[in-house]
Amino acid sequence: MNLTPGQQTELEKPVVRIAFFVEFRFLTKTVYLSSLGQTISWGGHEWVGFGAIGNIGSVDESLGTAASALTFQLNLAQIEWLALATGDTAEYRGRDAKLYFCPLNESFQLVDTPVICWRGTMDTMQASITGEAGDASAALVLKCETSAYGLKRKSSLRLNAMQHKQRHPLDTGFDYLVDLLGNPDGNIWVSKLFQMR
Amino acid sequence: MSIISFPAALRVRNFSWSQLRLDMAFKSAFGSQSLEVSPPLWEASFEVNAMYEQHIGAWQSLLLSLKGQTNQLALWNFARPYPLGTMRGEMTLNLAAAQGAESLSIIAATEASKTLKAGDFLGVGTGSAKQVVMVMEDAVADGSGIILVNTQPALRNALLLGASVTWDKPTALFRRKDSKSTWIYQPGLIMDGFSVALVEDTRT
């Protein structure tokens, strides 16, 4: 995330103001949301606030190559979100989501242009209502994955021997693929004579 | 959702008007920093005297018409319903004001050399852009009735040239902080006083 000098200066003050802007590219339309309690115009769009975004989850780091998801808690009371959650998953599954960040000055005006701080893919949407009558709360949790999400699906995307033989029936090149992957330490590198059989 | 006007005939025992800053602080032995996550909001509350049950109907009607936190209450600052300054008449913006502006150029052609005082309240905008601002410093209009005032909080929305400015009981839109309404009755059909807490909410 590359902040401008003006933005960096604003963030170093004793009291800072920040805003997050979220762009969800749904199938039927793109929605622009703001974390502020007002609507802000920038980039040619109106970024609607007023509590549309309830919470933005933390981005956790972990060992290895595990990809961490980012969750957005949305206002379930807005009927259009409820329609998305209960409707066709094609509306959101696998579609882009972007998160922008911008400091604000003392008058709550944007300092320069918001910078993108996270981008990913919308994955799952879950609606929940908890609590008792008179003291209930409701939320819509939209889980978004990073571009590393593809790594989680690598096994289902890998070409296997059966798929390869549909095009090349006599080619045995993929026949031992599962064994090679499953037993990397015990692989026996066959001779040229063996491969020519 | 509806906007309920506060009945001018009702009287309160006491009234409070506050500014709520939506901030959180980080403090450690090595320093501190605060983070504001949204523009400030007005808060208001009032207490109602104990009274005979036969007189409580208007209050009960007001609270129930709010339908908990569903409807909005248009409320002005009871302590200063009109400016202490002398400026009156039909006020409009002499210049357009941008979102985040902390000053307003106002014109009222009949109010040359009239004043607005620090602490006076002015109402601008309509609908979800409706906002009440406070004059920060004394100001005097020129010979054309144009006056420049510094205001807080900053404008949440841009305003167009010629937009109306309200000085007579300028109202902000509030919602109740809680949705429950309770009336406690004492012997002799006397109803205990109760309080209502509100926070500014412009969502329609």
Task: Describe the structure in your own words.
The complex is a heterodimer of chains A (about 200) and B (about 200). Chain A is an alpha+beta fold and about 200 residues long. Chain A is built from seven helices and nine strands. In chain A, a hairpin with a 2-residue loop joins strand 8 and strand 9. In chain A, the strands form two sheets. Chain A has a seven-stranded antiparallel beta sheet, with helices on one face. Chain A has helices spanning about 5-10, 80-85, 150, 155, 160-165, 175-180, 190-195, and strands at about 15-25, 30-35, 40, 45, 55, 70-75, 95-105, 115-130, 135-145. With about 200 residues, chain B is mostly beta strands. In chain B, about 5% of the residues lie in helices and about 45% in strands. In chain B, strand 9 and strand 10 form a beta hairpin. Chain B is globular, with a radius of gyration of 20 Å. The interface of A and B includes residues 18, 38, 50, 104 and 108 of A. Strand 1 of chain A pairs parallel with strand 3 (about 30-50) of chain B.
Write a compact overview of the structure shown.
The complex is a heterodimer of chains A (197) and B (204). Chain A is an alpha+beta fold and 197 residues long. Chain A has helices at 5-11, 79-86, 149-152, 154-157, 161-167, 177-182, 192-195; strands spanning 15-25, 30-34, 40-42, 45-47, 53-56, 70-74, 96-104, 115-132, 135-145.
